[in-house]
Amino acid sequence: MSIYRMRHLGVLLLISIGLLCCRPTAVHQESRVTHCESTLRLAVTSATHIGFLSELDELDCVVAVCNKQQIYTPLPDSVMDLGDATSPNLEALVLAHVDAVLVCSYAGSQLESQLARLGIRAIPINEWQETTPLARAAWIKQLGRELGCEAKADSIYRAIETRYCHLVQTQASVVPTRIMTGSNYRGTWYVPSGQSFMGQLFHDAGFVYPYDNDTRSGSIPLTLEACLLQFREADVWVGSDARTLSELRAMDDKHTWFRAYQTNHVYNWLCQSTSTGANNFWERGVVHPEEILEDLIHIRLHQDDSLHYALHLENGEL
């Protein structure tokens, strides 16, 4: 039996008898994965990682994922499902013989320390912490450095950045269009701040957004009264959770009070999504914010036949 196989069998034994909480023995100290494309065995914990890897043509490296049913990009049946990203199946992870795991460094997460105890390298990909679309997309360069394809990743990002900046420049003198977003959930309406991923996209697409100058982080909770004050006369509504206007009305009859509903200018981000919760908006869209920006510009111009991720709500009946 090879030393490699013996090491993994030993780790499996530790897992089975609950001794992984003991003091770690050896931790991998290399600053970068040194494998070539064809030999790297990679596990990922977020759908956004799949977007980056797909753009780099490195999907063949993926042998395990978390929440496989929520991955939009087709993956082979041989790719193992590790379960929920907050508590992935460590035994399955070891059985997959991975060389490294792409992780999100969430506060309170124990995954990186658990991987260290297993002798498996963790590669943090924390694009979710960035507040601008291009900063999120730029994480492809970090991943490219880790995988040994830095020049390719830099080239991809430069093309994305050039296209995005060109689109922004074309919207510098457009006729102002008012936008609203979100929906009412148990009496509270959550909207993005102006200094967030979506807030920046609204601004760059030439929309008038009431919270454009709001510097708070994360979502802003609003009362229905505040929403009516800010959004009742908005021209378009982007980011609804519904697929039809009738479904939106069924979710809360108060949704019908807004002008965008009344004029049938409501959109969701479900054009490329599945019934299991997968959505390419959070895979390719994170890598290609210029495509999301194009969608918003087309929405402002009522060009529904040119959308990548957005979907115009149908005027369906219940």
3D structure, described in words:
- The protein is α/β, with parallel strands linked by helices and 318 residues long.
- The protein has two domains: 3-125, Rossmann fold (3-Layer(aba) Sandwich), CATH 3.40.50; 172-312, Nitrogenase molybdenum iron protein domain (Rossmann fold, 3-Layer(aba) Sandwich).
- The chain has 13 helices and 13 strands.
- The chain has helices at 3-16, 47-55, 90-95, 111-118, 133-137, 139-147, 150-170, 197-204, 224-231, 245-251, 259-262, 284-287, 289-300; strands at residues 42-44, 62-65, 80-81, 100-103, 121-124, 177-181, 184-185, 188-192, 207-208, 219-222, 236-240, 266-268, 311-312.
- Strands 3-2-1-4-5 form a five-stranded parallel β-sheet, with helices on both faces. A five-stranded mixed β-sheet has the order 9-6-11-12-13.
- Helix 2 links the parallel strand 1 (42-44) and strand 2.
Write the layout of secondary structure elements.
Blueprint: H1 3-16, E1 42-44, H2 47-55, E2 62-65, E3 80-81, H3 90-95, E4 100-103, H4 111-118, E5 121-124, H5 133-137, H6 139-147, H7 150-170, E6 177-181, E7 184-185, E8 188-192, H8 197-204, E9 207-208, E10 219-222, H9 224-231, E11 236-240, H10 245-251, H11 259-262, E12 266-268, H12 284-287, H13 289-300, E13 311-312
Parallel strand pairs: 1-2, 1-4, 2-3, 4-5, 6-9, 6-11, 11-12
Antiparallel strand pairs: 7-8, 8-10, 12-13
Span of the ends, CA to CA: 64 Å
Q: Which descriptor suits the 3D outline? A: globular
Beta-strand percent range: 5-15%
In total, how many domains does the architecture comprise? Answer: 2
Element-by-element helix/strand order:
HEHEEHEHEHHHEEEHEEHEHHEHHE
Largest sheet: 5 strands, parallel
Helix content: 25-40%
* Structural category: alpha/beta
- Would you tell me which CATH topology of the largest domain applies? Rossmann fold
Mean pLDDT comes to: 87
* Contiguous helical run count: 13
Beta-strand segment tally: 13
Which ranges are low-confidence, i.e. pLDDT below 50, for 5 or more consecutive residues? 1-31, 34-38
